[in-house]
Specification:
The protein has about 375 residues and is mostly helical. The chain contains 18 helices and three strands. It has a three-stranded antiparallel beta sheet. Helix 4 packs antiparallel against helix 5 and helix 11 runs parallel beside helix 13. The longest helix has 24 residues. The relative contact order is 0.05.
């Protein structure tokens, strides 16, 4: 038996609802073999594993009947019992499995409630259990070679993912504080999968807080160490990393964007508009992509990148004038009209003032004479590239 041999990886697979054997085992139990299986479990397995496996059988039976509320409640009891009676550093694979399944069943149970026109509640309860699992891991004081702290980042990632799903991103900061105030090993000591997911979510939190420099740092790290074979994961990271690059005027290479057709379809029109300074093309792309940008939470950030397209256009005016430091505002109005933007002189002056205020242009407006006076050094500051 895998339990006698302390083969916790095998036991984790046995207790997983995702394992290929789960469906066939559920059917076996459903075909009148449930009582026999329960009796054999108690006969062959030592405590506490006999009780854990019994509860797992009940979860399988309930899931097979699509009674996800009962399945969740049983899994809920299983996780609590496991944490109390069986959780050691050796059983970390099982911790991961039972918590992942708990979250999955919570979402299924909530869908069941929604179909019955009731308010969902189980994912929030799963979040509380995940928080308990996280606390047990992060506060463990055992020696490092026997510490449950090695489960911290896996559970933290699952908990943060749940909080995002619930729209409780503010609670993620409690998880980060818990990690920062602990003495757990350096993140780089953990499996790469744990590192990538954690950095991804930290990047997302910074992204939504408009802390774009930090978001870029975390997301680039996650993208860099994510294996090429995990194309979907890399695409998810780029979904937020590209907008961060765009607002700094850093354009992803054609080779990079070509590898991800969905991102190419979404972001190429913006990249091209910024590259040539066609503000009208940017506005059209923005209108066309509005729904998807809102859906994925990148609407406001991509909107900010419009200023970079405008910067490219105005820099062209400056270059055409041989980089002179004094240019009539009407020339910028003509440039806007050339790309299809009708703007009166007040709107042109406002656009230039905003760009100066944001540090995209160095200089000042001489509004009395309707001139832009550029700095003789770095009139259009170059942002650092990725």
């Amino acid at each position: 038996m895998c339990i006698k041999d302390e083969d916790n990886e095998s036991l984790a697979r046995f207790l997983s609802l995702r394992d290929d054997s789960a469906t066939s085992l559920a059917r076996y139990l459903e075909n009148g073999n449930g009582r026999q299986a329960l009796e054999e479990t108690r006969h062959y397995l030592r405590s506490p594993w006999d009780e854990i496996v019994n509860m797992h059988f009940k979860v399988l039976l309930s899931s097979q009947k699509h009674d996800f509320v009962n399945a969740f409640e049983t899994q809920h009891s299983l996780v609590h019992f496991f944490l109390k009676e069986a959780f050691t550093h050796l059983t970390l694979p099982i911790l991961y499995t039972v918590n992942w399944d708990l979250r999955h069943l919570a979402m299924e149970a909530d869908d069941e409630l929604k179909r019955a026109l009731k308010s969902p509640k189980y994912l929030e309860e799963a979040g509380r259990v995940l928080n308990k699992s996280f606390s047990v891991c992060v506060t463990d004081r055992a020696p490092k070679n026997a510490s449950r702290q090695w489960g911290t980042y896996y559970i933290a990632n699952l908990l943060i993912k749940t909080q995002f799903k619930l729209g409780q991103e503010n609670l993620c900061k409690n998880v980060l504080r818990g990690i920062e105030s602990s003495d757990i090993p350096n993140l780089k000591s953990f499996p790469k999968a744990h590192q990538i997911t954690f950095k991804y979510y930290r990047g997302l939190l910074c992204f939504f807080d408009q802390q774009y420099r930090q978001a870029e740092e975390y997301l680039e790290y996650a993208f860099r160490i994510c294996p090429k074979s995990y194309k979907r994961n890399k695409e998810l990271i780029l979904r937020y990393l590209i907008p961060v690059w765009l607002i700094r005027g850093v354009l992803p290479s054609k080779a990079l964007i070509e590898r991800y057709p969905r991102l190419k379809a979404l972001y190429s029109p913006f990249i091209n508009a910024i590259r040539i300074g066609n503000v009208k093309a940017f506005d059209i792309a923005f209108a066309n992509a509005e729904h998807r940008l809102v859906e994925q939470g990148t609407f406001l950030t991509v909107e900010m990148a419009r200023a970079i397209s405008l910067k490219t256009l105005f820099k062209k005016v400056w270059l055409i004038n041989n980089k002179t430091n004094k240019i009539p505002m009407i020339q910028f109005q003509i440039a806007l009209k050339y790309v299809g933007i009708e703007a009166d002189m007040a709107e042109v002056a406002w656009s230039l003032a905003v760009m100066i205020q944001k540090g995209l242009i160095r200089g000042y407006l001489s509004e009395a004479k309707l001139f832009v006076v550029f700095s003789t050094k770095d009139a259009f500051p170059v942002k650092s590239s990725n």
